[in-house]
Amino acid sequence: MSTAAPPPSGISKVRDIVPKLGELTDGVLFGDVWERPGLSKRDRSLITVAALVALYRTDQLRGHLWRALDNGVTREEIGEMITHLAFYSGWPTGIHAAQIAKEVFQARD
Q1: Do the domain assignments include residue 1?
Q2: At 12, is the pLDDT very low, low, confident or very high (cuts 50, 70, 90)?
Q3: Are residues 61 and 103 in the same domain?
Q4: Which single residue of 12, 63, 64, 89 has CA 20 to 30 Å from 81?
Q5: Res 66: pLDDT
Q6: What average pLDDT score do residues 78-99 get?
Q7: Is residue 2 part of a domain?
Q8: Which value, in Å, is the radius of gyration of the alpha carbons in the chain?
Q9: Can you give the pTM of this predicted structure?
Q10: Residue 63 lies in a domain
Q11: Phi, psi for residue 39 in degrees, rounded to 5
Q12: Which of 2, 8, 38, 39 is closest to 25 using CA atoms?
């Protein structure tokens, strides 16, 4: 596993502007939703990354790819997910997601 630090989260960059949103992100999203027992964190990561790829939310994709790897999703699975999604969400979303995944993988090496 890499000793490199994950990229700063989107909320960490603007927490001083939207402190309540930061509080909700920490307490509700990551403190409650991500901790619910109905899905594993690995499954939540797969779902989240797929949604971010499909919706072309590239700012959040880096951090969630990092989290997915930490949660047990393999690089190969991420590659397969991106390939699969390219047929459903569009070729440009797949290619751009692959470029971001490559950057994340390289940062972790």
Answers
A1: no
A2: confident
A3: yes
A4: 12
A5: 96
A6: 97
A7: no
A8: 14
A9: 0.89
A10: yes
A11: -135, 150
A12: 8
